C-alpha cells in the first residue's frame, strides 16, 4: 500500500473473479446509497439541517464509490476512471465530495503481491525472465484498472517500465461492464451531463483489445514512431511485449492530476495546450487516436513535453479526423444554420423522419464551439457546467432538441475522447490558443 493514502483495502491479491462475488460488491453501491437516504431522513427528523445531511451523504457515497470500484479493478475500475474526467461538468455543490474520490481512481488501485507478479512473469516471459533484467523492483510504481507497473533496469542498462496484467482481468472486465449497465441511473446522478449507457457500450467494445498487451505494444510503437524527436510530445519506445506483460522505456514527469491540484498557471496552460495538440494531431500523424483520456495517462516533463502512456484503447483513423466534424464546427461558428442542418441530415446526425428547426439546432450546438471563437480560450469547470446544465434542463429547448439528435457509430469514440479531453482541460483550468491547433489539424475547419 502507498504510505499516506487515505484509503486502505486489506487482503486484496488479485481481481475477484467469481461473478456472484463481483455482482454483490457492485450491488452494494445502490444499496448503500438507499441506506444513506433512509438514514438521512432520520437525522433530518432529529434536527440536523438539510445541508449537513447532504454533505455527509455525498462524502460517504463518494468513499464507497472509490472503495468498491477500486477494489474490484477490471471493468469497474476502468469505468470509474472514465467517469473521473466528467466530474468537471457536475455542479460544484454536487461534485465537490466526489472530486477527490473519483480523481483517486485515475491513478490508484490495490497492488498485487510479489508472488503473483513473479507467477505472471514466469508465464509470460519464461521462468528465466529475471535474466533479462539487471534489476527488478517488486514494489509497484503505479497501479491502474487492469494492470500495474514496476520499475526495472533492462539487461542493457536502460531504465524500463514493466506493465503486468492482473490475473483474472480477462474474466472480470466484461462481466463488470454488464453489471454496471444495471446501475447506470445511479452513476448518471453522480456525474450529471455524462451519457452513461453509450459510454458503457463503447467501453465494452474497447475492452477486448486492451486485454492483449501485444496489440497495445503495436499501438505504442506506431505513436512513438510518429512523434519521434517531437519537441512537444514524448511517447516511450517499446522494449518487449507478451500477451499480459509489456516493457517500455521508463519516463518521468509531473502527473496532470498533480498539476490540477497544485500547478502554477503556466504549468496548467502548457499542459492543456500540449494535450490539445496531441489529441488533434495524432490522427493526422499516426493514423490513430489515443482513446483513454484520463490524467493518469499524461505527465508534463521539465523540458515542456507532454509524456503520453497507456495505448491499450486506440481508435484507428487512417484518414485522420473526419472532415465532416470540421465543417460542422465551422458552420456553427459562422451561424449558417440551414447549411448545418442539411449537413447533419446527410451524415445521419438527425434521426430519420425528425423535423427540427435549423435555429434550434444551431442554438444547441454553437456553444460547444465557444473555445474556437476567440484567439485564446480559458477552459473552466464553470463553462463545462453551463453546457451540462443547458442540455440537461428538462424544461429547456436545448434538451428537447438534443433528444432528436443522433451520434452515428463511427463518431461515438471520437466524441467520447474529445469530451474526455475537454473535461481534463477544464479540470486544469487551461488557457491557450485552441483555435490555432484545431485550424491546423482538423480537416474541414479552416477551408
Automatic annotation (TrEMBL):
Q: Which Pfam families has this protein been placed in?
A: ABC1
What CDD domains does the entry give? ABC1_ADCK3 (cd13970)
UniProt entry keywords in alphabetical sequence: ATP-binding, Nucleotide-binding, Transferase
InterPro entries from the UniProt entry: ABC1_dom, ADCK3_dom, Atypical_kinase_ADCK, Kinase-like_dom_sf
Domain ABC1 atypical kinase-like, which positions?
Answer: 104-321
Q: Which Gene3D superfamilies match?
A: Transferase(Phosphotransferase) domain 1
Query: Cross-referenced SUPFAM superfamilies, in alphabetical order?
Result: Protein kinase-like (PK-like) (SSF56112)
GO MF, any single term: ATP binding
Record family assignment: Belongs to the protein kinase superfamily. ADCK protein kinase family.
Record's protein name: ABC transporter ATP-binding protein
Show the taxonomic lineage.
Bacteria, Bacillati, Actinomycetota, Actinomycetes, Pseudonocardiales
Amino acid at each position: 500500500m502507498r504510505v499516506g493514502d487515505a484509503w486502505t483495502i486489506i487482503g486484496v491479491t488479485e481481481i475477484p473473479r467469481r461473478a456472484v462475488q463481483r455482482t454483490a460488491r457492485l450491488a452494494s453501491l445502490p444499496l448503500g446509497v438507499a441506506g444513506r437516504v433512509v438514514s438521512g431522513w432520520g437525522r433530518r427528523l432529529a434536527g440536523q439541517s438539510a445541508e449537513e445531511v447532504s454533505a455527509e451523504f455525498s462524502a460517504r457515497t463518494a468513499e464507497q464509490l472509490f472503495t468498491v470500484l477500486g477494489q474490484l479493478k477490471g471493468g469497474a475500475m476502468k469505468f470509474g476512471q472514465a467517469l473521473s474526467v466528467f466530474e468537471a461538468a457536475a455542479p460544484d455543490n454536487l461534485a465537490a465530495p466526489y472530486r477527490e474520490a473519483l480523481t483517486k481512481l485515475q491513478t490508484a488501485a490495490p497492488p498485487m503481491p510479489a508472488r503473483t507478479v513473479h507467477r505472471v512473469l514466469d508465464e509470460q516471459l519464461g521462468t528465466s525472465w529475471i535474466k533479462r533484467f539487471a534489476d527488478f523492483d517488486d514494489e509497484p510504481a503505479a497501479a491502474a484498472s487492469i494492470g500495474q507497473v514496476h520499475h526495472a533496469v533492462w539487461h542493457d542498462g536502460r531504465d524500463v517500465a514493466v506493465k503486468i496484467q492482473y490475473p483474472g482481468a480477462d474474466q472480470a472486465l466484461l462481466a463488470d461492464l454488464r453489471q454496471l449497465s444495471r446501475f447506470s441511473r445511479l452513476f448518471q446522478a453522480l456525474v450529471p451531463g455524462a451519457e452513461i449507457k453509450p459510454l458503457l457500450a463503447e467501453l465494452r467494445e474497447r475492452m477486448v483489445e486492451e486485454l492483449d498487451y501485444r496489440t497495445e505494444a503495436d499501438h505504442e510503437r506506431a505513436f512513438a514512431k510518429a512523434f519521434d524527436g517531437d519537441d512537444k510530445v514524448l511517447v516511450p519506445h517499446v522494449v518487449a511485449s507478451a500477451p499480459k506483460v509489456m516493457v517500455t522505456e521508463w519516463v518521468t514527469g509531473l502527473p496532470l492530476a498533480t498539476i490540477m491540484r497544485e500547478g502554477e498557471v503556466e504549468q496548467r496552460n502548457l499542459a492543456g495546450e500540449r494535450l490539445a495538440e496531441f489529441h488533434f494531431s495524432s490522427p493526422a500523424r499516426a493514423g490513430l487516436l489515443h482513446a483513454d483520456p484520463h490524467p493518469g495517462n499524461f505527465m508534463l516533463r521539465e523540458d515542456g513535453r507532454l509524456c503520453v502512456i497507456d495505448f491499450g484503447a486506440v481508435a484507428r483513423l487512417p484518414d485522420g479526423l473526419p472532415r465532416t466534424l470540421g465543417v460542422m464546427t465551422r458552420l456553427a461558428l459562422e451561424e449558417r444554420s440551414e447549411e448545418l442542418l442539411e449537413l447533419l441530415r446527410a451524415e445521419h446526425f438527425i434521426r430519420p423522419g425528425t423535423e427540427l428547426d435549423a435555429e434550434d439546432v444551431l442554438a444547441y450546438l454553437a456553444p460547444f464551439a465557444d473555445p474556437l471563437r476567440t484567439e485564446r480560450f480559458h477552459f473552466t469547470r464553470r463553462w463545462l457546467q453551463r453546457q451540462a446544465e443547458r442540455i440537461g434542463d428538462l424544461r429547456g429547448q436545448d434538451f428537447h432538441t438534443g433528444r432528436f439528435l443522433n451520434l452515428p457509430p463511427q463518431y461515438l469514440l471520437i466524441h467520447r475522447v474529445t469530451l474526455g479531453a475537454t473535461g481534463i482541460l477544464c479540470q486544469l483550468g487551461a488557457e491557450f490558443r485552441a483555435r490555432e491547433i484545431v485550424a491546423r489539424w482538423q480537416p474541414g475547419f479552416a477551408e
